[in-house]
Amino acid sequence: MPCRRAPGGRAVAALAAAASATLAFAVPSAEAAAGPSRTPERPGILPAANGDVLSSEAGVFYLDPLKVIKVDASVHRIMYGTTDRAGKTISVTGTVLNPRKSPYGQRPIVAFAPGTQGLADKCAPSRQMAEGTEYEALPVKKLLDQGYAVVVTDYQGLGTPGVHT
């Protein structure tokens, strides 16, 4: 069943803070080269501060489902701490994209919150970008082409254990 857009869901909680922390480091994994194919484990201990990065792995960003057009950017899938609507500390995944070239010394960061595309983990924007099926991929690529670093949230429950709100 394909992922479809669901109404609502435009909030990005602390993702820009997580992105700025992640731009400094990344821990690549062997399976990350093919893109995120699994749901990461929720860490046993969550950070005290929103935006703290819990993990990072190398990722990919394709513009097409045939995976012919790979975006020329440094791509990392991250897991970071935030809070849900009830104030409970949770972990959420997202993607940090850093252009290889930029006219800026220090790249400005854009937090991009795509419309939700379904309730299953396979509908997480990080997975859609890795599969070349993210329908808001062109605006993200345009920002990268202009020299901006871009962070994209997967939202609560997409890409991590739990239910998408």
Written description of the protein model:
The chain is of the alpha+beta class and about 160 residues long. The chain is built from 3 helices and 5 strands, in the order αββββααβ. It has helices at about 15-20, 125-130, 135-145; strands spanning about 55-60, 75-85, 90-100, 110, 150-155. A 5-stranded mixed sheet has the order 1-2-3-5-4. The longest helix is centred in the C-terminal third of the chain and has 9 residues, at about 135-145. The radius of gyration is 15 Å and the shape is globular.
Strand order of the largest sheet: 1-2-3-5-4
Helix-strand pattern = HEEEEHHE
Tell me, what's the shape?
A: globular
Enumerate how many helices there are, as a single number: 3
**Mean of the pLDDT scores?**
77
Work out the strand percent. 15-25%
Q: What structural category arises from helix and sheet content?
A: alpha+beta
Distance between the termini: 20 Å
Radius of gyration: 15 Å
Number of strands: 5
Largest sheet: 5 strands, mixed
Helix content: 10-25%
Low-confidence stretches at least 5 residues in length (pLDDT < 50)? Answer: 4-35
Task: Write a brief structural summary.
It is built from three helices and five strands.
Topology:
Layout: H1 15-22, E1 53-58, E2 73-83, E3 89-99, E4 109-112, H2 125-131, H3 137-145, E5 149-153
Parallel strand pairs: 4-5
Antiparallel strand pairs: 1-2, 2-3, 3-5
Summary keywords:
165 residues, alpha+beta, five-stranded mixed β-sheet, 3 helices, 5 strands, globular
